[in-house]
């Protein structure tokens, strides 16, 4: 009887096995902190790659709750709040005596203890939120953000992430300055000052937590690689800064930041270096500030104003915005300083040799790069010696990259439910190249793009006008924005007028869209417009 009863007793629910274990106190002989061990053989990596990706994509709903959570709640959700001012390391196993420094969270008091960083952040926050004296400026737009947008007061702010410094082209064949406009260049001293303060703060905090021997080695690497960086001549570790603005009323940061507000991986970052998040938010103290979650390591930090997080952004991560508790026009602002790997490693070899027209209009700027770069990027706050770039044109290395990934939000009761059916020992690999090319051909052609996004899938990056093809956007840019904005390749986005259809297009619809695509690619004279071309096609069909 007793044995029968015991068999009916439900066994306690086992915690799901994620890619990494919970942090434990570090006893490897390095400085105090916490150690994170993998749940897979590091010599081979996860055997079931599909399972590993799904595990990284699962995020607990608990992270969206306002207020601090208990250790019991965190444990049930298989996530762990980072301790203030404690380094976190990842080791290959229990016997690893040289774990890799992966992250550290600075609370406001910890930032205050790094005096130069705190003073720089405090001044940067004041500049970044300073309201414009222009009576026509919007209530929730600062003077700095208005200059990032440009002089147009009518531009719709759908994406409020602004990049300064250097980046890599979409083709990953050239390093170039981040997009600039006439307003940025006109107020180079103003924007340069903010970038300088942010670079100082990020550099000081990184130096306070990262292993000195690693930073020394990376600094020596910079002497030969000569990376173009932003903000300050002493900055050797950050190529780019991104200012992420968002209001407290939005439901998700993805609405204002695009992919940067979703769970994503900064695969173009140099994996040997770190990203620094500086929280320059100006939200009321009564608001819950939100969290940043590193999903692969299952650790998170509460990102209140004047806090900072140093971490390797090649790990998947997501930031959650503040939760409103009343009406407010205050803004969340995070300055993200990061190291683009091609910029850090390959500047001399990949530095772009052409100058956009927006830069050629400035007196004294030569029409070829890299000579023009140091002058044009005064707005980015850096004034390096031009000859440094010209003296070293042989450096080169490899680069790689990924971005947004899928997010699966689950309740505490369902932690692990997205991958419980998968066997970690069942081998899976990435899609073969042939499969990927087949998929890309289906999803990247113009008829498919129009089916998914609407008849006008391309939004001009600099105004609210939409167009049917990239070439149309380019023509519009040359007519309307050539002397105020640098050209940016547009990406498809949903046309507000587009009504999604539940059923697939029939063959006739596909044929019609394909015909439209052919028309887009054809050139026609001024006397003979696209309507005339279409009539010609119809007459040929009838004959």
Automatic annotation (TrEMBL):
A GO MF term: zinc ion binding
Residues of the C2H2-type domain: 458-481
Protein name per Swiss-Prot or TrEMBL: C2H2-type domain-containing protein
Keywords, ordered alphabetically: Metal-binding, Zinc, Zinc-finger
Compositionally skewed regions (Basic residues) per UniProt: 532-543
Start-end of Acidic residues biased regions: 503-529
Lineage of source species: Eukaryota, Fungi, Dikarya, Ascomycota, Pezizomycotina
Secretion signal span: none
Species for this entry: Botrytis porri
Chain positions covered by the region annotation Disordered: 492-543
Family matches, as PROSITE patterns: ZINC_FINGER_C2H2_1, ZINC_FINGER_C2H2_2
């Amino acid at each position: 009887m007793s044995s029968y009863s015991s068999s009916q007793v439900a066994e306690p629910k086992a915690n799901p096995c994620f890619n990494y274990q919970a942090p434990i106190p570090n006893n490897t002989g390095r400085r105090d902190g916490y150690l994170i061990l993998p749940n897979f053989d590091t010599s081979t990596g996860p055997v079931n790659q599909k399972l590993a990706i799904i595990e990284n994509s699962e995020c607990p709903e608990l992270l969206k709750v306002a207020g601090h959570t208990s250790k019991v709640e965190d444990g049930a959700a298989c996530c762990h709040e980072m301790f203030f001012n404690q380094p976190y390391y990842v080791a290959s196993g229990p016997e690893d005596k040289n774990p890799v420094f992966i992250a550290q969270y600075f609370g406001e008091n910890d930032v205050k203890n790094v005096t130069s960083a705190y003073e720089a952040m405090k001044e940067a926050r004041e500049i970044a939120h300073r309201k414009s004296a222009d009576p026509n400026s919007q209530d929730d737009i600062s003077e700095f953000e208005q200059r990032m947008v440009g002089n147009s007061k009518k531009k719709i702010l759908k994406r409020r992430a602004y990049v300064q410094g250097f980046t890599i082209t979409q083709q990953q064949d050239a390093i170039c300055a981040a997009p600039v406009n006439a307003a940025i260049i006109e107020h180079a001293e103003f924007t340069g000052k903010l970038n300088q303060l942010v670079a100082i703060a990020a550099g000081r905090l990184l130096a306070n937590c990262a292993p000195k021997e690693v930073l020394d080695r990376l600094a020596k690497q910079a002497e030969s690689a000569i990376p173009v960086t932003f903000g300050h001549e002493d900055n050797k570790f950050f190529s780019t800064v991104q200012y992420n603005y968002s209001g407290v009323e939005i439901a998700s940061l993805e609405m204002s930041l695009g992919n940067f507000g979703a769970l994503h991986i900064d695969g173009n970052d140099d994996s040997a270096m770190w990203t620094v998040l500086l929280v320059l938010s100006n939200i009321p103290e009564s608001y819950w500030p939100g969290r940043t979650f590193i999903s692969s390591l299952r650790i998170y930090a509460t990102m209140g104003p004047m806090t900072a997080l140093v971490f390797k952004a090649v790990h998947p991560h997501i930031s959650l915005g503040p939760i409103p508790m009343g009406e407010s026009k205050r803004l969340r602002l995070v300055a993200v300083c990061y190291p683009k790997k091609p910029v850090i490693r390959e500047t001399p070899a990949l530095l772009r040799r052409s100058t956009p027209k927006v830069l050629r209009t400035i007196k004294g700027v030569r029409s070829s790069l890299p000579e023009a770069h140091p002058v044009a990027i005064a707005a980015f706050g850096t004034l390096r010696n031009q000859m440094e770039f010209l003296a070293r044109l042989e450096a080169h290395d490899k680069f790689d990259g990924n971005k947004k990934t899928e997010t699966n939000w689950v309740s505490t009761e369902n932690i692990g439910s997205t991958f419980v059916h998968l066997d970690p020992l069942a081998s899976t690999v990435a899609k073969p190249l042939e499969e990927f090319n087949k998929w890309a051909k289906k999803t990247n052609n113009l008829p498919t793009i129009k089916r998914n996004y609407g008849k006008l899938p391309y939004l001009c990056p600099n105004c609210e006008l939409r167009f049917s093809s990239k070439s149309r956007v380019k023509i519009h840019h040359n007519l309307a924005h050539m002397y105020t904005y640098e050209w940016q390749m547009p990406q498809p986005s949903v046309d507000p007028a587009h009504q999604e259809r539940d059923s697939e297009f029939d063959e006739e619809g596909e044929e019609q869209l394909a015909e439209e695509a052919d028309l887009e690619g054809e050139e026609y004279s001024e006397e003979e417009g696209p309507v005339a071309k279409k009539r010609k096609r119809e007459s040929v069909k009838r004959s």
